[in-house]
Structure formats: structure tokens, C-alpha cells
Design goal:
With 205 residues, the protein is α/β, with parallel strands linked by helices. It contains five helices and eight strands, in the order βαββββααβαβαβ. It folds into two domains: 22-113, Medium-chain alcohol dehydrogenases, catalytic domain (Quinone Oxidoreductase, Chain A, domain 1); 119-203, 3-Layer(aba) Sandwich (Rossmann fold). Helix content is 22%, strand content 21%.
């Protein structure tokens, strides 16, 4: 995207070299984040330094190169990543730079297409639960992250559509030790939310 509310263009670029803390990832799967069409359609600003930009903040692929200082990743690893909107670090490229700290390995039974949907879901839930309280703008509930940190405390999870309401939030609540976990959903999703960790089910219909 070369300019505000401009036309998309496809251009060739040199493959970037990963710096300290970076991974070079070959990207075959990208999620279209709702924020991205709003940047193009409405000219939203504040999420990047300036034009031109390449979109595609949520993606999945295979590690091609590992930058200096990176531990826990190797060439060939299948990963999900969340990137900023910039020339060398976005998903709508064949090869993108990813910060290792915003990258996670994916399980063998998860496809790259499925994995590309996870970064926005996980980050939204994490910010919503554990982000700093801010009454004047975006923020979270201000809770402290940690396994079993809230053991024995109840939580109510609203929502019926994947991946946020009935999937990631329930799983994060379970990892955090919440008990009981009360989830609302449509009747046909009861078995799913229970399998993810909900202890009680409320029919939202």
C-alpha cells in the first residue's frame, strides 16, 4: 500500500536478512485482520510509521533463517507470527522478518492456515485479560498472568464464535486456574466449549 487509501500494488523486493532477535519466515498463510481493510478503506493511522507499508500482521510459515541471539527456533520450524506493518516484516510477502518474541511454534496437527488465525486471537485475549487498565482508551482487566494464578476463582466467558469467545479465552482461563469456568454458547457448541475447559455451560439462545 503506497499511500493513504491508495491502490494495492504487487512488487518484487529483495529477501531481507534477519537481524538480532529476528527470524526469516517463508509465509504461505496469512490472515486478513479486520484492522487491515480499515487501514486501506478508511485511512486509519497510528499503527505504523508511514507509507509505503505491507499489510499482513498475522501469518504462519516455515523458518528459513535464524538471527543472532535467537534461541528455541531452528530452520524448518513451523511457526505462527504477529508482525508490525512495515516493509520487511509483514505477512503479505513470500518471506517476512518476524521478531522471535512474537513468534510461536505450532503443533504438527495444526495446519498453517489454522495457525495464521491464532496470533490476533491470542493477543486479543491476552491484552483483554492481562493488559493494563485504561479508562480513557484501549486497555485490559489488569490481571496478573501466570499458570494457576487464579486457582479456585470463578470466571464467566461470553461469546459464541471462534476463536475468541469459546476457544482461546476458555483455554487461557483454564491455564490460569479459574474454577469454575462458565461459558455461554449456542447449544450445538456445548460439547466444544466443555472439551476446551468450560466446567459449566449456559445456553445463550
Amino acid at each position: 500500500l503506497l499511500e493513504k487509501q491508495g491502490a494495492f500494488e504487487v512488487r518484487g523486493r529483495p529477501i531481507p536478512t534477519p537481524g538480532t532477535g529476528d527470524l526469516l519466515v517463508k509465509v504461505p498463510a496469512v490472515l486478513l485482520n479486520p484492522l487491515e481493510y480499515k487501514i486501506r478503506k478508511y485511512g486509519l493511522e497510528g499503527f505504523f510509521e508511514g507509507y509505503p507499508i505491507i499489510l499482513g500482521s498475522d501469518a504462519a510459515g516455515t523458518v528459513e533463517k535464524v538471527g543472532e541471539g535467537v534461541e528455541g527456533f531452528a530452520v524448518g520450524d513451523r511457526v505462527a507470527l504477529q508482525t508490525p506493518f512495515k516493509i520487511d516484516g509483514a505477512g503479505f510477502e513470500q518471506c517476512a522478518l518476524a521478531q522471535a518474541r512474537f513468534t510461536a511454534k505450532i503443533a504438527p496437527n495444526v495446519s498453517l492456515d489454522e495457525a495464521a488465525t491464532l496470533p490476533i486471537a491470542v493477543s486479543t485475549v491476552a491484552i483483554g485479560l492481562f493488559g493494563t487498565v485504561n479508562y480513557e482508551g484501549p486497555g485490559g482487566a489488569g490481571m496478573t498472568a501466570g499458570r494457576d494464578k487464579y486457582a479456585g476463582k470463578p470466571i464467566l466467558v461470553f461469546g459464541d464464535r471462534p476463536p475468541l469467545g469459546k476457544s482461546v479465552t476458555v483455554q487461557v482461563a483454564k491455564l490460569s486456574g479459574f474454577e469454575p469456568i462458565i461459558a455461554t454458547a449456542s447449544p450445538h457448541n456445548e460439547s466444544l466449549v466443555r472439551s476446551l475447559g468450560a466446567t459449566h455451560f449456559v445456553d445463550r439462545s
